[in-house]
Design brief:
Alpha-Beta Plaits, 9 helices, binds ligand DP6, 4-stranded antiparallel sheet, 8-stranded mixed sheet
Length: 328
C-alpha cells in the first residue's frame, strides 16, 4: 500500500464561520473568506496496513487518544467507505501550529489528512472534492485546500458547501502578525463555542444576515488590493462574532484583558495613520492584518504595553501539496 504525505497550511478567516446548520455534514450558517498562511502548517503521512487491529494515530510523535483519536477515526471511516478500503491505517501528523490556541490548527490538520488519506486510499480527488472531504473533519479545513484568499460558500448540502480559491497568488503587500497571548489550549473549543452562540445568542440571526451580506465587500477589497477596506471589514466581522458569545445566555468569551489591550493599541496605531487591524478566533490570541512596511512601528507600539509579547510574521501561503513516499 502506498504511503502519502500532505502538507496543508492553516488559514485565518477574514469573514468568520461561526455556527452550523448541519453538525454532521458541517454546513455553516455563513459564507466565510480566509487567507492561507505560509508560516503555520501540518504535515500528515498516511498508509493503510492490513496487519493493524486499530488505527494508529500520532500527533507530534505522541499517540493520540480520546476525542482527538475518535475524530480522526471517524474521518477515516468516511474515506474508507468512499474508497471501499477497509483496512486500518497509520496517520502520523506533525503540527507546525500552536495547537488549540485560536490559530485553527484543525484547519491545516484536516486538510492535510484529507489529502494524504484520500491519496493513500487510491481516491484521486479534485480540489473541490478534497475541500468537501476536509470540511467533514473541520469546517475551516475546507478553505486550507487552497492558497491565498479562499471562500467557503455556505451552500445547503454536501455538494454545495465547498470552498474555492479567490486569488491563489497574492502579489500585494499583506501580512498577518500573530501575537501569542496564551498558547495554552483553550477551554471552550470552537465546535462547542459556535454551538453555544447559535443556540443561546438572541442576536444570532442578525450575525448570520450581516456576515453573509459582507461577502461582496470583502471580495471587492481583495480584488482591489485595498488593505484598509479589507482590514476594516475583517475587524468588524471578528468583533461581531465575539459579540455573539458575550451576549449568549450564559455569556462566554475567548478574549482576555491582554486581547483587549492589543485591540486598543491597534486602534491607537490607526489613529496615527498606520493601517493595522485586529482579528481573533476561538482563543485569546490576536492577529494583526497589516503591511510589511509597518512591522517595526507596530512592534514598537506593542512592546511599549506588552514587553514580552511573542510575534510571528505570516505572509500568504500555498494550497495543499501531496507527495508520495517519504514525509515532506
Ligand atoms: C473562529 O473549523 O475549528 O476559527 O468545523 O467545528 O471543526 P469545526 O470548527 P472550526 O471553526 C473555526 C472557527 C473560527 C472561524 C473560522 O475559521 O472561520
Amino acid at each position: 500500500m502506498s504511503q502519502y504525505t500532505a502538507r496543508a497550511h492553516t488559514n485565518i478567516a477574514l469573514l468568520k464561520y461561526w455556527g452550523k446548520t448541519d453538525t454532521n455534514l458541517i454546513i455553516p450558517t455563513t459564507t466565510s473568506i480566509s487567507l492561507t498562511l505560509n508560516e503555520f502548517y501540518t504535515d500528515t503521512t498516511v498508509w493503510f496496513d492490513e496487519q493493524l487491529t486499530a488505527d494508529d494515530i500520532t500527533l507530534n510523535n505522541v499517540s493520540l487518544q480520546g476525542r482527538g483519536y475518535e475524530k480522526v477515526t471517524r474521518f477515516m471511516d468516511l474515506v474508507r467507505d468512499r474508497a471501499n478500503q477497509h483496512q486500518f491505517v497509520h496517520v502520523h501528523s506533525i503540527n507546525h501550529v500552536p495547537t488549540a490556541a485560536g490559530l485553527a490548527s484543525s484547519a491545516s490538520a484536516f486538510a492535510a489528512l484529507a489529502g494524504a488519506a484520500s491519496a493513500a486510499a487510491g481516491l484521486s480527488l479534485e480540489p473541490a472534492d478534497l475541500s468537501r472531504l476536509a470540511r467533514r473533519g473541520s469546517g475551516s479545513a475546507s478553505r486550507s485546500i487552497f492558497g491565498g484568499f479562499a471562500q467557503w460558500d455556505r451552500g445547503h448540502d454536501d455538494q454545495t458547501s465547498v470552498a474555492h480559491a479567490l486569488t491563489e497568488t497574492v502579489d500585494w503587500p499583506i501580512q498577518l502578525l500573530t501575537l501569542i497571548v496564551n498558547d495554552q489550549p483553550k477551554k471552550i473549543d470552537s465546535r462547542g463555542g459556535m454551538q453555544n452562540a447559535r443556540a443561546n445568542s438572541p442576536f444570532y440571526q442578525q450575525w448570520v444576515d450581516m456576515a453573509n451580506a459582507q461577502v461582496p465587500a470583502m471580495q471587492a477589497a481583495i480584488n482591489n488590493h485595498d488593505l484598509v477596506a479589507l482590514g476594516t471589514l475583517a475587524e468588524a466581522n471578528a468583533l461581531q462574532m465575539h459579540a455573539q458569545n458575550m451576549v449568549a445566555n450564559p455569556p462566554f468569551t475567548y478574549l482576555t484583558d491582554v486581547s483587549w489591550l492589543i485591540i486598543e493599541t491597534v486602534k491607537a496605531l490607526r489613529a496615527t495613520g498606520i493601517p493595522v487591524y485586529a482579528t481573533m478566533d476561538a482563543g485569546p490570541n490576536v492577529k494583526l492584518i497589516s503591511q510589511p512596511a509597518d512591522t517595526e512601528k507596530i512592534m514598537v507600539a506593542l512592546r511599549k504595553v506588552l514587553p514580552e509579547i511573542q510575534v510571528t510574521v505570516a505572509t500568504p501561503g500555498p494550497g495543499i501539496q501531496i507527495v508520495q513516499g517519504d514525509r515532506i
